[in-house]
């Protein structure tokens, strides 16, 4: 989709509203008002602007011409441009002949004329014509020579005509110095004051304060709600905005006010920007898009000026939509850093607040903003009257994922063995952007294999690459392969035996990404509530790798660092955030890491005492120690299965769910049915987000 505005046909207004857009008000009555620029009235053309300002160009040309003539005259009058430049030694050589007709002292610069053409003794025969038509010269007198009284005596004894100027620069240089500097300051100050008086000039900062927002005309907005898969509730919320922009008089008659601003919040890649463009496409109005970071510059006041220019331009093109992406870059809570409340960011935020309050009821300007950090936004920005409506866009569910996959597969030829419903069922937790990347990686895999269609094998490859990373070329030693195999076998075996843990999708000892081995878990359904038993089971599974290494090799390995970090994080949240410790009780403690601002971390007091912190640490250790002991017990009880699984990993390097069922039997909690042999195979060939456990 092209973002540039197409050229309008001859004779047609450039910004004419298409069918279905903002309706024209009938003549007479309250609705009869001046048509703003961009709707029906003619906007001033660049030629008109040039004609109005052409009168100010002539004085500038005169000033530049006078300065040029002044510098040219000063350059000609400079002693260093008099004749040929020679060295002081050559000057003394010609003086000893003697061959000097006249000399003139200009401070340290000496100019003069030779009596006849210099010879080869001084090396000047090539610099002067043989006919003696121009025998002038200039040289620089060393400072020691200025104290040599014998120099003047020798010149006078030879009958040389000696003259001297004052030890100062020439008159032309004096005029340039004394007139140029004040003139530059005066002209510069006049220019800045002229720009500050220009309402469209952006003040004294000129074009720095011009808004860099990109404008998209209605004709260029081809994206509609039909192009947005899933997000049905969000589209329903925005449909009211579209209806208001198309027919605002219907709402105004009832005294209803449409929300001034709509905040789209959700994880990255969920389609917030796409949804805002679809809203503009549905409404058929101009669309101004800008990123929050584009307001912030090194000059104080530039951000506020850009905000003013953006909203002023938007009002002239009403009805329209302003979209501010990543608004958290400029809308963070005020007074949270070291600089206090007088920095550029906060001035810009204050201007945004002021502009959103200054909307006239007749201005059909809607502000859409997107962020994935709503927790850091200023409360004044979120209150009703500014961003009245908050729409949460979460990761899609199964039906939504299937719809998104169908959208991204419109131009991708699929093989008959690809079932997008199966792929959607095993991609729990993936965002729209991640699904798009998944389809693209599958298409790239098919292109590398010179296939004409994308197969299920390509989706398997895309699954491994997206979730586990690409394969590394390094080859592990036999000892490292065995250690990695037992480490991953410990994870996989415990996950297989614990019904609270997600099903094992794949186990591999092939180095991928930053990991030497990966145990990939596949959730079978979306979970919105995690119980205490499930969390304890996850701790046991995470500590299974190091426990297996201790059992087999009688020592712990350094590869369990990531497992310990993740397990400790879960245990600390269980104790300090979720109230799952009987000793601590139902209390949630906030830590410094919860604060998104560095300044508040330094100034905010901790909400619990040192004694309580010690108790929290003890409870975290109790949780982790209990999980470790349970992991040791379960692995010792299943030592034979652990050995079989590890040996299979050493031999085959990668095991799928079907292989695990053949070695270990059905997983704990699984119902054994006649279809149990088919369903795992489908899941194995699908693509899903995993709670993968890596051995670094």
Give a topology summary.
Layout: H1 46-53, H2 57-77, E1 84-85, H3 88-96, E2 100-106, E3 109-114, E4 136-140, H4 149-157, E5 161-164, H5 171-197, E6 214-216, H6 232-246, H7 248-253, E7 261-265, H8 272-283, E8 287-291, H9 302-316, E9 320-325, H10 344-357, E10 365-371, H11 379-382, E11 389-392, H12 398-408, H13 420-425, H14 432-448, H15 456-468, H16 478-497, E12 503-508, E13 517-522, H17 532-542, H18 544-553, H19 561-576, H20 598-603, H21 610-637, H22 639-652, E14 654-656, H23 657-664, H24 679-684, E15 693-695
Parallel strand pairs: 1-4, 2-5, 7-10, 7-11, 8-9, 9-10
Antiparallel strand pairs: 2-3, 3-4, 6-8, 12-13, 12-14, 13-15
Properties at a glance:
alpha/beta, five-stranded mixed beta sheet, about 700 residues, six-stranded mixed beta sheet, 24 helices, 4 domains, about 45% helix, disordered N terminus, Rossmann fold, Signal recognition particle alu RNA binding heterodimer, srp9/1, single chain, Helicase, Ruva Protein, domain 3
Molecular structure report:
This protein has 696 residues and is an alpha/beta fold. It has four domains: 79-169, Signal recognition particle alu RNA binding heterodimer, srp9/1; 208-392, Rossmann fold (3-Layer(aba) Sandwich); 398-468, Helicase, Ruva Protein, domain 3 (Orthogonal Bundle), CATH 1.10.8.60; 478-695, Methane Monooxygenase Hydroxylase, Chain G, domain 1, CATH 1.20.58.760. The protein is 44% helix and 10% strand. The chain is built from 24 helices and 15 strands. The protein has helices at 46-53, 57-77, 88-96, 149-157, 171-197, 232-246, 248-253, 272-283, 302-316, 344-357, 379-382, 398-408, 420-425, 432-448, 456-468, 478-497, 532-542, 544-553, 561-576, 598-603, 610-637, 639-652, 657-664, 679-684; strands spanning 84-85, 100-106, 109-114, 136-140, 161-164, 214-216, 261-265, 287-291, 320-325, 365-371, 389-392, 503-508, 517-522, 654-656, 693-695. A six-stranded mixed β-sheet has the order 6-8-9-10-7-11. Strands 1-4-3-2-5 form a five-stranded mixed β-sheet, covered by helices on one side. The chain has a four-stranded antiparallel β-sheet with strand order 14-12-13-15. Helix 17 crosses helix 21. The chain is elongated and about 120 Å long.
